[in-house]
Please model this.
Amino acid sequence: MTFSLKITILCAQRLNITAMKIYRIIIVFISLILLNLSTSGQIIRNKNTGADNSNSQSSPEILSGQSLNDDSFTASGAEYKYDYGKETGLYLDEKWLPGEIVLSDGTIIKDRLLRYNIYSRQIEFVDKNDTMAIANTFDVKQLKIGERSFIFTSFVYDGKPVEDWLEVLVDGDYSLFLYRRIVYRYVESLSESNPETDRFFMVEKYYIQDSNGEIKALPNTKKQIVKCLAEKNPDIESFMKENKIRLTKEGDLVKLMEFCNKKDK
Model:
């Protein structure tokens, strides 16, 4: 083998080794970037969907930006486009509002300021400058916070039985309720998580109660609504068409249930 040929082979080998080193460095660099992205922002999902008389929070499930594996999600903590639901605060209304509590035995309590903690799913009240929460929830027949009315009852959410607060939108033989539940909690860092500064996302779901007293989720289509309510309200289909009722508009749902109550009398 000639000397020039040996030099050529040696140079080629060195170039090959250098290329492999550069390739490995690039791979390590990319891995570090992905690792940093996956830990810079986290979403905590509330898994407490079972019945719970104490209304306490169970251990949440942690989802990182990387594990979601969705292009529309940015795990930077500053901006993200992933649809986690409607953003909300800890409370339905942070202000303490005059309340009225009606107990099952007919007792009415009016000397309390109340607010609804959506995250802990508890009704809080002020007692001697201390913040307390209603414990014996099934002893409450109905309560009011400002202009809103609530009941505590059993129903099915996401295929599982729950016991929770429902806001009463229409009260009658046919009732309409609104259920709110925080399902995601966005934190910049688990070590620095603070309920006062973290971001919360909730779902809102409508429920109806028919003349038989059964509380069930609002059907998704007009055809299902008609099937559910037409037995005692044969004109409901024509009413929905004439009034252009949309199942996504709360005002239309209120109008529909008020019509059912008038027809049932």
The longest strand covers residues 175-187. The radius of gyration is 28 Å. The mean pLDDT is 74.
